[in-house]
Amino acid sequence: MARQSISFTKPNDEWLKTQVDNKEYSSKSELVNDLIRQARRQQVQIDWIHAKLEKAENSGFTNDKKEDILAQSKSLLNG
Fold this sequence. Notes:
Distance between the termini: 49 Å
Strand content: under 5%
Mean pLDDT: 93
Radius of gyration: 22 Å
Largest sheet: none
Oligomer: single chain
Helix content: over 70%
Number of helices: 3
Shape: elongated
Number of strands: 0
Order of helices and strands: HHH
């Protein structure tokens, strides 16, 4: 595993220490790695949503009213 030296602001360092003191994590390194994993998973979700939005935007616009769109969506969800 690669070693890094990073600096934290005082509030962030205190928060990290609290998490370790509360036995949520065994070390600051474990906590930082977990936060990075969470951020990476979130980025995958953000990228997926972005791709869906981009596809929808590129498919054109509709003149349907929002009530019609909602009814159609509910119909599709309910089978």
